Amino acid sequence: MKRRIASVATAVAAVATIAGASVTNASADSALAKSAPAFQGGKCTYNGYSGWGLFEAVSRKGKGTEKYNDGYTVRGYKILALRTGKIHDRSAAELSDASKGDKVWVTISHDKGKTWKSCGHKTAKAGERIITSTKYLHSGSDVHNRYMRACAKTGGKVWCADIGNKSNRKHGDGKKRYWWTDS
Asked: Could you tell me the CA-to-CA distances from 153 to 10, 57, 93, 139 in Å, in that order?
């Protein structure tokens, strides 16, 4: 009987992962905030998802648009993109050609990029070439004015996507930042 219960629990957990059940990633987020230069906002308080959702068609913001470099930001051999689902509208940062110890996450803003929170951090393990952050709703009935962008830490340096349909210079360093929004 105990074996049967364990099998059912495993099956339920697998279905929840495939369906993209909500997950909390606070411990990983706070650990990265301590180990890497953190962006404004501190601890992520938004609901994240482990999966894209059932029957999701996943693409990337800017795909097919020359103005947005087909949705990619490239640094050396590393490729960073904000992946997004067409049905459930969940978005996540994805880093290709990752090396052990590389990190990827999204930053989320609700005030047009003046302040933001770093969310959904993932760290590459040995042999892991593509890493994807936790997924977050980009828009929806209870999500309004959400700006998102993909960020990474590779070779000890933090960098974020340099493409997006919105931009601003509302930061102490005066550098231009780019964001994606569905608002």
From this structure: 33, 27, 12, 26
